[in-house]
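job 3f2a | input accepted
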Amino acid sequence: MLDSGRTAGSFTRFCQRPSAPLYSDLDRPEGTSPKRKLDAPVDHARSEGRDDAPARRQSSLLRLSAAIASAQTEEDVCRAVVDGLHDEALGYAFLGVFLLDLATGDRLLRAAVGWADVPAGMRVPAGTGLSARPLADGQTRYTPDVSKEPAYIPGLLTGSELDVPLRASGDVFGVLVVESREPNAFSHHDIEILTAAAQQAGIALARIRLLDEMHQMVESERRRADEREALLDTISDLSTDLELSRLLEAVLSRAVTLLGAAGGELATYDETKGDLIIAANYNMREDSRGTHLKVGEGAMGLVVRTGEQLIIPDYQSWAGRAAQYARIDARAVVVAPLLIGRRAVGAINVWHEDPARAFSEADRRLLNLFGQQAAIALENARLFTAARRERQYFEVLVDNNPVAIVVLDTEHRIVSCNPAFELLYGYKQAEVVGQILDQLVTTPESRHEAVSFTVQASENQMVQGFGKRRRKDGSLVDVEVLAVPVVVDGERVGMMGLYHDVTELLSARKVAEAANSAKSQFLASMSHELRTPLNAIIGYSEMLEEEAGERGLADSVADLQKIRSAGRHLLSLINDVLDLSKIEAGKMELHLETFDLRPAIEAVAATVAPLIEKNGNRLALQFSDGLGAIRSDVTRVRQILLNLLSNASKFTEGGVITVRATREGKNIILIVEDTGIGMTPEQLGRLFVAFAQAEASTASKYGGTGLGLAISRMFCEMLGGAISVASTPGKGTSFTVQLPVEVRENSAAAPATESATALSTGAAGTVLVIDDDPTSRQLVARMLSKDGFRVIEAASGEEGLALARTERPDVITLDVLMPVLDGWGVLTALKGDKELATIPVVMLTITDEKNLGFSLGASEYLTKPIDRAQLSEVLKRYRRTPGGKVLIVEDDAPTRAVLRRSLEKAGWSVSEAENGRIGLEKLDADQPSLVLLDLMMPEVDGFAFLDGVRSRTFAEAPSVVVITAKTLTESDRQRLSGGVREVIQKGSQDIDGLLGDVRQRVAAYARRSRTASRP
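job 3f2a | predicted structure (1015 res):
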């Protein structure tokens, strides 16, 4: 036995001829053999007839065994088999060795003799031919007469065939095919010889394949070792160099070298711009760095889009070739995306110019490994660069920040500080590093406060406050302190302290607060001091005008009308100035309610009708369908329209003034259009500026203060809307007002509900108010809060049910008319819940009382000056019996006189008090049914008077009507709450508008009174 020319052992072959045939006619295998032509064969019968034949056959078999054993390749084994068996001593003329193609199952001819024109590499499809069966079952198959086999592929046309499998250790590698022209040509002795030769060939093939596998394994391990070494070198580079361009070039050059390629490129991906930029190349004829590729463009753009690797056998013929590479001679190309997870950060390609070179799966795998390292390198470099930039940015920001900044470690020791800190406290950074901050900049008095800030920041809380801190020279400075914990990955690594010198700010704030307080006091005082004398002027002129008319003094009547008109004009000017002052001071409040827009516009039109008719103008009102109701401040809406109509009336003579009102989505559009003198672009530019008028000549002719339009724009903005204007000189002007259908609760109005509720301790229990209308909820909440109830509100049936389950109130008030889930549905759900069924439910609907305004308890709230007709209308509501008693508590004597005369003329019994102290004495002595109360009085003011009223017990408590020129503040309303039932604050509207408002509220009280009297 020889192995590679060396003696590896020996074997002895024993053969015992069986007494019976190996195959009978019954089990003779069927099959086909390759179609072939035969040369003149060696005659088997003749060779057996010679005397020296056995010795010659033995010698041939020994040579055959030696040749098979010494074969180094599969091709050598196959050739040794056919050449050795073709020996004249053995007499086999037609032989072929077919090896199995494991991928397809076909049989591939590897060696043959006796077939002169058989094609090299002949392939027989799987399952065809007589030689297919030995491959299937591993058994030798003998066909005595091929002409009788239908599956036989004609070759010799007649004769016999023996098919012997080449196998070892259960694996079949191929088949040995031996043929003869003569039928029944093969004996048992032939079968033994051929089977032994096939077995030796199978063993040799198994040995060669095992050696090949071992060589492949060794080569694979060597290759892997090289790859690991290259990867280790790459990782080493990653850990020592974060310069992106050098790093990527190193990775790329190793990838090209290991793949045995000619060159390559590496591109980075800019996700924000959506393109790739080639950042590194290797062995390129032209420098491609800086080239831009869109996602999907070229091979690298394609793999970035798909996230998958790509092998291109011939780049020159590839349809997706990028135009930038038209002059590159790359042939085989392998491309891989650079991925961090599934996010692309770039792409790498390696290419070769050799047309015969093809990249394998191993190359693809290796490039993938390098691609991962390149992706990591790219991401690390980006993070490093970003961190460096952020650090530089932070350092510049801190160093140039005017706020003093100090950085502390977890032990509260100073790590660093900025120049502003050095300037504020007088220390250099070298002096403070390592010191405890709270010990450095505090006094014994402020140390506890500073330490508390530090402790809270140590608990990962950001702390802000004000305090005094000590400088290096011992002086104190007022600072705003912000302590910010520095947390990284959930772990506190330190904190920052920020100190802002607020010495000047505190001083300025005190001055501003004093000025604001003075301005507020001035507004309140001016509204009282200016309106009080006007009350006497207008009141006395009305009474004198009435008496003059009764006496027939026509000339006096005209003069008195001029006095009253002048008084009202002066009142209008005062109201405008006060409104503007309140808006600028932030004291103007919105009182939101739901009202029908059309009646409100018609009321304004009725009010301004005399002014429109004065200049011979005609007013036209145009309302679109579905105008409906809005939620807004009706007084401000009317004042906007009144100002616009007054302005149009003043600048239009003998023309038409039109008011159009439409609803567009969530907005109301109001247009006031006139056919007056119009305005130039220059005049339009200063139209909404306070105290600014069109020009001197216009102002002298038409008059005015220039406040009306400025205030109108401010009101529009307060309501969340806007106003615009278009005008043509000589043709007219058009103002367009846009207002939201529903104005949200503003910060000025909201505290009224909160303060009313805050007065209640909840001692009387908890009430849940369920109503979709916010005004109705506020009304009920105010009333119940005064009685000591804690009130919670729900804006829908669903919200009410949820609050009922969580809060478990003592009582529920429930509106009937609500969207989605109405009151009856809520009541059914409540009674169906075992835990809620016992809660008392009061069903209400107050849709007729949405216009009640502030529910602070006053019977009425009127503003000075008092209109007699208005006062008479209001007093009718409160007269209990003929000659009812009324108490006037007012420090201004002329006002008392006007009120007394009006009341006595209406049949009231009147008593007076010049301040609150005397008023309380009169209240006890006279027991009036009605009190007319001024708020601003000496000695005991109106608020103190109301406190006295609350502390008394009456058989029938008097109704209180507040008559004042004072602008109520929020604290004033809180003081009124509980002492009066309703407040109507309409200080800036005209008398006729106020009269309509009072009548509406008196009617509401009358409805409530009738409802309360029903059983």
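job 3f2a | The mean pLDDT is 75.
job 3f2a | closed
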